[in-house]
Amino acid sequence: GRRMGSEYELISGVPNNAQVVTAGQARLLNGMEVEIEQ
User: How far apart, in whole angstroms, are the C-alpha atoms of residue 8 and residue 30?
Assistant: First the structure.
C-alpha cells in the first residue's frame, strides 16, 4: 500500500485488528521485546 503522512494503506495479507510495525522494522529480530504505542 501507500504511506500518506502518518497513515498507512494496507491492501492485503493483514487480518482485521492486527498490530503492525510502521517504523524501525529493519532493526527487529525474532523474539525481541517491543513497546506498543497508539
Answer: 23
21-9-3 Cα angle (round to 5):
75
Region label for 27, one of left (φ > 0), alpha (ψ between -120 and 50) or beta (otherwise): alpha
What's the rounded Cα separation, in Å, for the pair 20 and 36?
10
* Under 8 Å between Cβ of 20 and 14: yes
Question: Strands, DSSP E only, in the chain?
Answer: 3-4, 7-8
Q: Which pLDDT tens digit goes with each residue over 3-34? A: 888 888 888 888 988 888 878 888 989 999 98
